[in-house]
Write a structure and sequence with these properties.
Blueprint: E1 6-9, E2 14-19, H1 29-38, E3 69-74, E4 87-92, H2 108-123, H3 125-130, H4 134-140, E5 150-155, H5 161-171, E6 177-181, E7 190-197, E8 201-203, H6 205-211, H7 219-223, E9 224-226, E10 236-239, E11 242-245, E12 249-252, E13 257-259, E14 262-265, E15 269-270, H8 281-296, E16 300-304, H9 308-320, E17 325-330, H10 342-354, E18 358-361, E19 375-377, E20 383-385, E21 388-391, E22 396-397, H11 400-403, E23 433-435
Parallel strand pairs: 5-7, 5-14, 7-10, 14-23, 16-17, 16-21, 17-18
Antiparallel strand pairs: 1-2, 2-4, 3-4, 3-6, 8-9, 11-12, 12-13, 15-22, 19-20
Helix pairs in contact: 4-5
Family: Belongs to the FAD-dependent oxidoreductase family.
Pfam family, one: Pyr_redox_2
GO molecular function: electron-transferring-flavoprotein dehydrogenase activity; flavin adenine dinucleotide binding
Length: 455
Amino acid sequence: MISETAEANIGCGASIQIRPTTPHAAISEQSKRQITDESYCESGKRRSGTPTPTQDRPTSAGIAAHPGRFAVTDKSGVDANANNMLTTRVRPNPKTQTPKLPRPQTSSKARKKKVKSKTRSKDSFWTNYKKGLGLAGLISTHPPAMAGLRNIVVIGAGASAVPMIQSLQKRLNGATHQLGMRSPRWRCILTVPVVIEKRDYYAHWPCLIRASVTEEGSLEEQGLIPYDRAFDPSVQLVRGDVQTITPSAVVTDQGATIPYEHLVLASGSIWSGALDLPSSRDEAIEHVRGFRRRLEGAKSVVVVGGGAVGVEYVGELRHFMPDKEVTIVHSAGMLSNSTYPEKFRKALYGAVTKLGAQVVLGDKVSPDAVPEDGYVVTESGKRISADIVINATGGRPNTSFVRSFDPSAVSPKGTIQVTPELRVRLASGAQNVWAMGDIIEWPEQKVGVLLGGSR
């Protein structure tokens, strides 16, 4: 029994107040009418008429919230021995809301500039994350169109999907509670996610890059994390690739048809070479160890691509294998990409050269190049000493299955067109398909660590 008021912050800057309520018999006549009008039975239909007696109260379907409120009820229902139930009420949070002050006396030009800046901040993708909205929060507060248990299907379980799924687990506990939400007069019952992923492990790339150059700590085992350590047992993991998407279901290459109420596309990138890991964890561990043995037997290494992965590889090679001659080849005039400021890119170049690595800018080497007689040849004809070539040019968006669903949602680069809330821009106008991570078309650097991928 809860004997005093408790508060908890929620994503949108408000607080939830959890308070005890009186037994059913002591509820005022007005409250009885509200509960009667807004209650739902097991079939999802609205109850109507006179107030329900104790033995006829709603059970697992819960009690729908009053207007502007959420209601949380135990799945076991409210029985005759219950002395209270949990209700929640959304109210302003003084810690996150700034009190209104008189408007300062400023010029019209200054006021327009201030309004423009405020609008930009409101529309910012990262502003939403800082406020705690996030994709999990948006999904968990978006009501389905019909009553009944619905799946939240997530395609992929990488650096962006894993923390989102973990957040959903906390918000949507289908084993003990159901979340009722009135908006408008819809009964919203959400379940735990269903994850479709061909691998049986989560690949933590920063750890795996180091594991490929040193035996210390058996990092290949730590960096390939079984999904049963990432999610609780209630999350359903379906092994396989997606073959087809329809407006209401996902079909895998194993023939499984999985219906969804919400669909999250987080399929990530397709890599090649050393970063192309097998789907089995045991095979992936051996893959990393085999590549490490190849590096140990090489005298010179060429890293193709001067982005985050390429620069990381250079640093690890020079630290753990200082006897190797390391050259990094990048097609742009500076390391990294234009997302980062020029000052940072210059500092990065200085740090790499200080490690003793050779840097070749404005030139290209085929990522699939095979050294001949201990050399590779660049596009301009330059010969570079190499016993092994590491492809770090980046992955391709894994979105081929989306084209058959809605070609208009896929950009010419293969990325997914999304709104600032991460909804996929579908020709049908559907609002229940989302995307995140490497596959989205968004003008910001997507770094797994910022989204919790370091877990």
